[in-house]
Write a structure and sequence with these properties.
The chain is mainly α. It contains 2 helices and no strands. It has a domain of 59 residues. Helix 1 packs antiparallel against helix 2. The longest helix is centred in the first third of the chain and has 57 residues.
Length: 97
């Protein structure tokens, strides 16, 4: 009787240990979704920064050389954000530019 009870408890413990990782993909998916939303917001913010820098250049607030340097940096940051989004969304980015 005690042997059967111990075997039943052991089986239940094994079932819990085996089932635990199977429930975690939902947590990982929620984390990925949250990260995707963060990256999409960062992408929109970066696009806005690029447009603002271009407007500043057109209005004469930035010289052509300064604007080109700022634009190059901002576009590089935007590319990194897009690559991270591609990885999380399961798309493979094209090779290095």
């Amino acid at each position: 009787m005690e042997y059967a009870l111990a075997l039943l408890v052991l089986a239940a413990l094994v079932a819990v240990v085996v089932a635990r990782p199977l429930r975690r993909p939902g947590e990982a998916e929620r984390h990925d979704e949250s990260r995707i939303q963060e990256l999409q917001a960062a992408k929109e913010a970066k696009y806005r920064e690029i447009r603002d820098a271009e407007l500043d250049h057109q209005m004469g607030k930035l010289s052509r050389e300064d604007w080109r340097a700022v634009d190059r940096d901002l576009r590089g940051e935007a590319i990194e954000i897009l690559r991270d989004l591609d990885r999380l969304e399961g798309r493979q980015p094209n090779g290095p530019d």
